[in-house]
Amino acid sequence: MSSQRVKLISLGCSKNLVDSEHLLRQIAESGVEIVPAEAPYSADHALDVVVINTCGFIADAKEESVNTILEAVEAKRLGMVSKILVFGCLSQRYREELIKEIPEVDGFFGAFESREVLRAMGIPFKKSLCRQRYLTTPKHYAYLKISEGCNRHCAYCAIPGMRGKHISVPVEELVEEAKNLAAEGVKELIIIAQDITYYGLDLYGKRSLGRLLKELCKVEGIEWIRLHYSYPASFPKDVIAIMASEPKICKYMDIPLQHSSTKVLKAMKRGVDAKRTQELIDAFRKALPGITLRTTMMVGFPGEDAREFAKLMEFVRRNRFDRLGAFTYSEEEGTYAAEHYKDSVRAATKERRYAALMQLQSSISLENNSRRIGTQERVIVDSCSVGEGVWIARSRSESPEVDGIIKVAIPKGFSKPAQLVGSFMEVKITGADEYDLEAEMIL
Known about the structure:
Elements: E1 5-10, H1 14-29, E2 33-35, E3 47-54, H2 59-77, E4 81-88, H3 89-101, E5 107-108, H4 114-121, E6 141-145, E7 147-148, H5 159-163, E8 167-168, H6 171-183, E9 188-192, H7 201-204, H8 209-217, E10 224-227, H9 237-245, E11 249-254, H10 262-268, H11 274-287, E12 292-299, H12 306-319, E13 323-328, H13 336-340, H14 347-370, E14 376-385, E15 390-394, E16 406-409, E17 424-432, E18 437-441
Parallel strand pairs: 1-2, 1-3, 3-4, 4-5, 6-9, 9-10, 10-11, 11-12, 12-13, 16-18
Antiparallel strand pairs: 7-8, 14-15, 14-17, 15-16, 17-18
Helix pairs in contact: 6-8, 12-14
């Protein structure tokens, strides 16, 4: 078994990545050589197994997953791979079709069949490793998935059909996992789930994100805790108070709002209206001055006319989000919207609205970043680019992968700058553009 070479490619969101890291820990325990996902296929260094964790959320993600599978199939044809195993959301959703269309794959498995994947590799599952991970992120930060599935039924979203109902991980198990991560050098935990605000309802009969956060703050070695994927409807207000009182919790909130028009939000089945959405944002900013708010908006949803889009633009102008991503609506089979609404907004109109929204946000982001010039901030170093003469870092206001970066100039003559990767430092912000910042190290 120890002579095997295995590569696992994880596609889609960070929630998928956590699943992959749990599986990789089981694989690594068996003595198998783990080949980095980015390593190219090679006849000189053939792989025994390629495992692909797929995404099936939207059309682009599905296309990426299929193309990745086909690349592995071609590598298998050329003798670079012996076995291909596919699991995750795409396989969960389209298993029968995939078996027919891509018979060269040796096994398709659902999103929750990691034990079956191990069995197909001849590797025994070890219960003792359940809360342990093989990190594929830089060693100083890690994602912590606190629940699976979703009980929301947003009209456009296919995820409940793929991932099932909301199931929380008990507090004790999450604390154990956090301690294991801290022991491996993790300093920053990024809390994720399909909806972190729903956490605990199934286990404890009430929303318990606040309770979980208090326990995670007690874990030695963890210095930053960051919240992602929170839902605006019925947001647990105790979490705002805890964020204000716990210094480990970054004053950062990722809260996908999707729209600001009551008409559109109702059609989306979001369970919240324009008034309550604005009240929640105001509550965050009152209790947490300087909070970084990250959100996502959808344009072109059925029924969004020029008037409703104008409301969205005005909402963004008023609230001046620090981070805002957007995407155009597309029908997803099996969703309420695809079955009950007509895709009424023309493609060209969707693209025009998307461009206008992102242009507005670009100007807001530049102004927000420019206001940080001259400030002193604490950052964590993610990597070192000696060739460029900079450290790549983030403050409490930047989450990895999805936000901008801070380029910190390496002082001339600084010895062994790579050794500071994963460390905190104090910097002064010296420059800004729409996405990234520049800084100098404070010696």
